[in-house]
Design a protein that fits this description.
CATH superfamily of the largest domain: Phosphatidylinositol 3-kinase Catalytic Subunit, Chain A, domain 1
Keywords: Actin-binding, ATP-binding, Coiled coil, Cytoplasm, Motor protein, Myosin, Nucleotide-binding
Order of helices and strands: EEEHEEHHEEHHEEHHHHH
Shape: elongated
CATH topology of the largest domain: Ubiquitin-like (UB roll)
CATH class of the largest domain: Alpha Beta
Main location: cytoplasm
Largest sheet: 7 strands, mixed
Subcellular location: Cytoplasm
Number of strands: 9
Radius of gyration: 31 Å
InterPro entries: Kinesin_motor_dom_sf, Myo9, Myosin_head_motor_dom-like, P-loop_NTPase, RA_dom, Ubiquitin-like_domsf
Pfam families: Myosin_head, RA
Number of domains: 2
Number of helices: 10
Bound molecules: adenosine-5'-triphosphate
Length: 287
Amino acid sequence: MSVKDGEGGAPSQDGRAYDLQVYPRLSADCPSCCTLKVPKEATAASVIQDAALALGLDPQRLYVLAEVKECGGEEWVLESGDLPVQRVLLWPRKAQEQHPQSEGFYFLLQERNRDGTIHYVHLPALWKEQEAQKLAARGFLPPRHDDFDDLCNLPALNESSILDNLRNRFHKKKIYTYAGSILIAINPFKFLSIYNPKYVKMYENHQLGKLEPHIFAIADVAYYAMLRKRVNQCIVISGESGSGKTQSTNFLIHCLTALSQKGYASGVERTILGAGPVLEVRLFVFV
Ligand SMILES: Nc1ncnc2c1ncn2[C@@H]1O[C@H](COP(=O)(O)OP(=O)(O)OP(=O)(O)O)[C@@H](O)[C@H]1O
């Protein structure tokens, strides 16, 4: 609705008519909006009547007018004696002057059942999509992702959603994904430039989950937990043959030795890695 000095429409006592835009939420074949010129003292009942006429709706059916306000996304159903223009005059100035549905302040026309409840219709997919986007923007729905770096955040948790998520991430060269504090790694079978000293530094002393999942984050958490609690830590690596257990072990040792400041200089990393094939290191206990 935009507030204008009255030309046309029913003038109010102060001589002004107000443009009131009403968006029907009825069926897909209904017009998307109608603009009415109404006086300040027009009631919701009369606006509903005019809107039904303008939209060519069945006058035998019952309708309600609801005010939608962006803040919180509430829909306030108006009583038949309520004055829609009064509501608009309380909106922010910009919304008073211009309020396309996309801006958040508008009126909805919905069908009402005989018992007073609102008759919800099957909404067109596009409309639902827009609503979902708005709710996500307000924080009522999780932001729309096609990949989640922690499986615990998947909106639907089942085998196919897990595999889809891992696949999507893998195609974006994100081979690591968390499931809580567990790290899932998918073998890329090719070199990825995510293991250089810059990454060791980046993940150093960071809470798990703050950054993109990475094997260095696991090494870092174990290392600092050992220092803080002065208790041995272990990292269990499991997977089928060829899945990358040995490679992951090497990355962990690389990161741990780098963190302990001994890595490059003392040859500790080389010594441990050299013992790997003999010990088949899968589980580390650091004192
Ligand atoms: N993160 C990675 N980046 C690049 N290549 C990797 C990665 N992880 C594994 N690979 C490659 O995949 C191959 C198999 O990995 P690896 O030997 O670690 O598997 P494994 O689980 O230890 O196998 P097995 O249980 O049979 O010993 C290796 O050639 C390795 O280089």
